[in-house]
Specification:
29% of the residues lie in helices and 24% in strands. By secondary structure, the protein is an alpha/beta fold. The N and C termini lie far apart (84 Å). Helix 2 runs parallel beside helix 3, helix 8 packs parallel to helix 9 and helix 8 packs across helix 13.
Length: 581
């Protein structure tokens, strides 16, 4: 039901307020009140100003008085610059951004009359009423589906071009939702550019070349026609350029402007029937500082992630957003639609290896990120050479992350972390979404990873409540006490992954300290198991034990030399091997 039936007293007060305004104003005539076909209450009125009469219709929305009435010209004409199109509503002093339910339709009508008086003085001159509008890029671009992106430095580069001199430029094209987006990548030939844009974006679906020219005094053309653009170029003495970009059958990209007024034109069609599409230029603001200064060191760090499933993919994306510059990904699994329930990837990656898909995802988040990947399973049926290569690559990382839930993979990662004295982080989502575990092992501070895992297992067993572990870590499924199926959802997995990410960031950004007093936590997401309620977190204090670093048996120098002599290849074999390499 609409407001005027449910709040009939308000309808009465609205009529009374408008009648009172009419009785005291010689400029207003109120006509009939009548609901329209959508059951919105409407009232017609006329405003007299000088020798002019303006007819309007005020329409009360169904959500009144929580939303303001709307006033339209009766004949769908445009009478003001404060109007949303020729047949649109008037933008008055009372709007959605400052509306109060105590404001009445009579207040709206009075505001309408003040707008007319201000914009149409008796002198006949054109006056624009004062505006209370605040700039909004999103609102201004709603009707602009073709957009050209430039950075502040791009703008300086094009404004540094010689007057009326043609230059080649390259742009990257992409589609996002309903928008065509183009961005400048360089000015000048590919092999010898005079400018390379600092606006680093993922590669689009196409790279196109075009012509850019700076014309002093050129302004925004708006809804320009091919004829008007051709006439402008002729007037500037650029007739030859007109022939190349307009009088042709080719699809051409033409960038034209000066100072802060630049426009990209897409020109296409047969020479005798050319079409033109202007692109709205959007200045991309300089990147603001959104991360702490201490995170700057992350750009040079390498994180090795084993497991690109739901937990691993979320950790990788979070670390990439935080500024980690290098990744090693290890996973042989394929992405299928069912994985989209919890994975960072979407359905467009169906059928791809998760590692490859996650690589693309990271590149879309930070195009300059470096990603190396192995499509394999640690401890799986792989060649020994492949396994050795993956483990050696892990050993070169600054932090190792186990996101597999596999004991075999954990053991191999833990061994490499211990041997190379590299910190290790692991995460596990418990069955049924009841919570999860995050843990770390820091060289020479915490127990070695294998010992740390043992201490965590014993702590859980000592709580006197059966520890719920998933038989299949990928399912995160379990049952409650009454047998009701319980599944970990995306939010559950996201919580555990986010805590693991914070461990990694802490290790990389604060190598000499930590904001975490202990190195293992179980985090409750329900009142199951030993948790009293969601977000019930239990720290686990680990006792340092085990030796970090490569195991070295003591050997005197003479014995070492003898071993080397006995096992090095003969000189001729070594020379042959060197030649072959």
């Amino acid at each position: 039901m609409t407001w005027w039936l449910l709040q009939h007293s308000r309808l009465g007060s609205e009529k009374a307020a408008l009648a009172e305004l009419e009785s005291g104003a010689d400029w207003l005539t109120v006509e009939n009140w009548q609901a329209n076909s959508d059951l919105e209450m409407c009232v017609a009125f006329t405003i007299r100003h000088g020798d002019k009469r303006f007819g309007f219709r005020m329409r009360y929305p169904s959500m009144f008085p929580d939303a303001p009435p709307m006033i339209f010209t009766d004949d769908a004409s445009q009478i003001s610059n404060h109007q949303y199109g020729a047949d649109g509503e008037l933008c008055l002093e009372h709007r959605p951004d400052n509306w109060q339910p105590s404001i009445t339709g009579a207040d709206m009508v009075a505001s309408c009359q003040r707008l007319i008086v201000e914009e149409q003085p008796e002198s006949g001159e054109i006056v624009h009423a004062r505006s209370a509008h605040t700039a909004s890029l999103g609102r201004d671009l709603r009707s602009q589906s073709c957009r050209f992106l430039m950075s502040e430095n791009d703008l300086k580069a094009v404004n540094g071009l010689p007057d009326l001199e043609e230059s080649e430029f390259t742009l990257s094209e992409r589609k996002a939702a309903t928008s065509y987006l183009a961005s400048l990548t360089r000015i000048g030939p590919k092999d010898d550019p005079t400018w390379v844009s600092d606006l680093v974006l993922p590669d689009g679906y196409a790279k196109e070349t075009g012509t850019v020219v700076r014309v002093p005094g050129a302004g925004n053309f708006g809804a320009v026609t091919v004829e008007a653009l051709g006439a402008f170029l002729d007037g500037e003495g650029l007739g030859e350029l007109r022939g190349r970009v307009i009088d042709t059958d080719a699809f051409t990209h033409f960038l034209l402007g000066d100072e802060d007024k630049w426009e990209l034109f897409l020109i296409f069609g047969k020479a005798d029937d050319r079409k033109i599409i202007p692109c709205k230029t959007v200045m991309v603001p300089a990147a603001q500082q959104r991360l702490p200064d201490e995170f700057r060191v992350l750009a040079d760090k390498t994180v090795g992630i084993v497991g690109c499933g739901s937990v691993g993919s979320k950790i990788a994306a979070s670390l990439c957003r935080t500024g980690v510059g290098k990744f090693l990904l290890i996973d042989e699994d394929i992405f299928f639609p069912g994985n989209a329930v919890r994975n960072e990837l979407d359905l467009s990656f169906t059928g791809a290896h998760k590692a490859n898909g996650l690589c693309d995802r990271l590149k879309n988040l930070a195009p300059e990120v470096s990603v190396r990947l192995f499509r394999m399973t640690l401890g799986g049926q792989e060649s020994a050479a492949s396994m050795v290569g993956a483990l050696e690559a892990l050993g070169d990382c600054d932090v190792l992350i186990d996101a597999t839930g596999s004991p075999t993979a954990f053991n191999m990662i833990a061994s490499m972390a211990t041997r190379k004295s590299k910190p290790m982080v692991w995460a596990q989502v418990f069955a049924g979404g009841i919570g999860g575990l995050v843990a770390r092992a820091r060289p020479n501070i915490d127990p070695i990873p294998l010992m740390a895992r043992g201490q965590i297992d014993r702590w859980c067993e000592d709580q006197g409540v059966e520890w719920i572990k998933p038989d299949d870590p990928e399912r995160y499924a379990g049952q409650s006490a009454d047998g009701t199926p319980m599944l970990a959802d995306d939010a559950d997995v996201g919580v555990i992954a986010a805590h693991a990410s914070r461990f990694v960031i802490d290790l990389l950004a604060r190598p000499d300290g930590s904001i975490f007093p202990v190195s293992a936590y179980v985090i409750g997401l329900s009142s199951e198991w030993l948790f009293d309620q969601p977000f019930d977190t239990r720290p686990i204090d680990l006792i340092p034990v085990g030796e970090w670093g490569e195991t070295i048996e003591p050997l005197d120098a003479d014995a070492l030399v003898e071993i080397i002599k006995a096992h090095l290849p003969p000189k001729e074999d070594a020379d042959a091997s060197a030649t072959a390499d």
